[in-house]
């Protein structure tokens, strides 16, 4: 079994978006999310986590933040459905409590009283007089550590009586912003926007080119609670890299990963030791162009020299550096 991560790390992730809408803003007619003062494109961490979750699900991983069957559900209803599903499997419950005889006895007592009606069983487990209450938290923690990789990565809050608990994710990302100033495509195209029960019409807003940068952290202390393992972390790295282009939709087509650099610290060093890693990279248009004319990566010069020098000058702090880059990114060490 893979071990829980033992080191803190910070990472930088860049991906490009070409002639698309990387993250629509519902408060702005679904236009690309923008910082209009700086003319930079923004993408939320939630958008990126959704890419990763959808990708992991396509790879056969069990995801908690997801629909229940074909229906959208609130988190509390999702948790109820999940617990009821596992309560149907008495052998699974025995596996969960294999070394916890008091917890198993309490659950079996409820099973005996309520028969095979899992809804009634869950109701009994959530009553104030159910004891020992720790049994429910033990089950919840087991499900997270053994079943739901997205909670091990990103954490989650659960608000079901008897199971109320919150977990801080071991992996966190900032909102991303474009390293380049972006230009919106002038368009009056009308598209159909599908809602839950109906459809409406809206404009098709896109931008020409955005090179988006994210700063993120992996925290070993949070991992002790969620159970994030070294294998999980490798799954995250691959998921982050592959999911951007592997899950295309009409408005998200033409998005590709460009660079991932993760600095894994030696013991005794903590997240943010070097600050936001985006401060060590920059872009400029190639000679003869300005930012308004940028239409692709070939029109930009990506400067990573400060980041490479930072790593070179701080070897006593760094345990390892993980690097992924696309073929058109010149980053030594990949």
Strand-helix topology:
Layout: E1 9-20, E2 24-25, E3 31-32, E4 34-35, E5 40-43, H1 45-58, H2 75-87, H3 90-96, H4 101-114, H5 118-125, H6 134-146, H7 149-154, E6 155-158, E7 165-168, E8 171-173, E9 176-178, E10 190-194, E11 199-203, E12 207-218, H8 220-226, H9 230-246, E13 255-265, E14 282-285, E15 300-303, H10 305-313, E16 318-325
Antiparallel strand pairs: 1-12, 1-13, 2-3, 4-5, 5-9, 6-7, 8-12, 9-12, 10-11, 13-16, 14-15
Helix pairs in contact: 1-9, 2-5, 4-5
What would you say about this model in short?
This protein has two domains: 9-61 and 171-325, no CATH class; 75-147, no CATH class. The chain is 32% helix and 25% strand. The protein contains ten helices and 16 strands.
Share in helix:
25-40%
Rounded mean pLDDT is: 93
Oligomer: single chain
Give the distance, in angstroms, between the N- and C-terminal Cα atoms: 28 Å
